[in-house]
């Protein structure tokens, strides 16, 4: 009995080590590829620094006045709401595919997820975040 447990522990340790080795290999490969791409871009890329490169450019016409104009906060709020509901659809699709396999617990979890989203939308609507002023 003791020999069997020892063999099982050895097998588990080998599997953990193999998974860790695979993780480290993938991580090192990713870092190597990123560094290689950066170095190649720096070596091959053009090096032309002059005053024209720092100027704002708009459709080939020199800009008049300041190029940095403040944006209304409503644009950012609308973009955040759009991203929130866009991500919601991305998360809702896989759930709809496997809902029959998981049963009632899946319905409860997605119900809570949708409830939080609907409450967030109701709050934003009540505060006037969806109206342009």
Mean pLDDT, nearest integer? 83
Total beta-strand segments: 0
End-to-end C-alpha gap: 76 Å
Largest sheet: none
Radius of gyration: 27 Å
Q: What portion of the residues fall into strands of 2 or more residues?
A: under 5%
**The number of domains:** 2
- SSE-based structural type: mainly alpha
Number of helices: 3
| Helix share bin | over 70%
Broad shape = flat
Instruction: Detail the poorly predicted runs.
Output: none
SSE pattern: HHH
Walkthrough of the structure:
It comes from Hoylesella timonensis CRIS 5C-B1. The chain crosses the membrane at residues 12-40, 73-96, 102-125. Its main location: membrane. The chain is mainly alpha-helical and 133 residues long. The protein folds into 2 domains: 1-69, no CATH class; 70-133, NADH:ubiquinone/plastoquinone oxidoreductase, chain 3 (Methane Monooxygenase Hydroxylase, Chain G, domain 1). It has 3 helices and no strands. It has helices spanning 2-44, 73-102, 104-126. Helix 2 (73-102) runs antiparallel to helix 3 (104-126).
